[in-house]
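Hi L.,

As promised, DUF2510 domain-containing protein:
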Amino acid sequence: MSQPGWYPDPAGAPNRYRYWDGHAWSPETTDHPGGASPPTAQSTGRRRWGPVIMVIAAVVVAVLVGVVVIRGLQTDRPVADPDPGPLPSSTVSGWDDSSATPTLEPSNIPSEAPSRPLPTATPSEARPLRPCPEGMPISRQPYPSDGRMHGGGLSFPRVSGWDDASGLAYSWAYDVGEQSIPVESPDWYANLVVGALFTGDGFDEPKRAADLVMQCVITSGLYPYFTDREEVWSKPVTVDGHSAWSIRAKILIKDPKLKAKGDTVEVIVVDTDSPESLAMFIGQVNLGDTKLLRTLDSTIKNLRVE
């Protein structure tokens, strides 16, 4: 699709329209199409934002902390004051409603954007999407400086040369810890992520939760120009003596600005014996990069349940 204009919201919101500028969807929607075109998400990856956005982030976090306490997500440690990172503009994430998944009503908590724009599907290609749950990834617990990245009841050894990141892209989760490294300009990163999934959001058992997380990863805006998903495996596994489910897939893209053809993505969801949450791991590494794939496999091998 090349013609800019207002089209039915590809995220599936009824009677809502989103603006297509010829390259990307706008973060805003309207029920009165035909007005002035809004700004659209132009970045293709993780961006660093300035002090103004950090002030906005602090205000949003203050509101979200109050809401999440009411929701009652509890883990073994008390929730600490969040450490907001740079805050991108809001987008919508979702999963394919064609699979047998529980009906999830959208939360009233405002969702903060993933760090890459919405997948650039044309109106004719857009599928109805059920919104992913809205968590609070930057609500972090206190963790020791022990050379490991912690989050949601899991940890992995920190990878030398990789940077700590905000985890905002994983907007359906809580207590997200993330390391990333640039792979290709503009802003194409490999990521290693741990966090918590709230069972009340429909992440009620590892197999179904892993499938939902994979759908959220694909449709959240992390993959511009998404074209296809090729599943490598979907199988039960054990993580540090705990039952879990692993899905590995090749996520394919066709972005004219990138040499990258996509990522190998692995999602692992672990039953940590908590009645209120499951633990989540996500690894995303560039397709065909054997060194990054070895890092992913080594990280998974050394996952630890807290």
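The chain has one domain: 51-305.

Thanks again for sending the construct details.

K.
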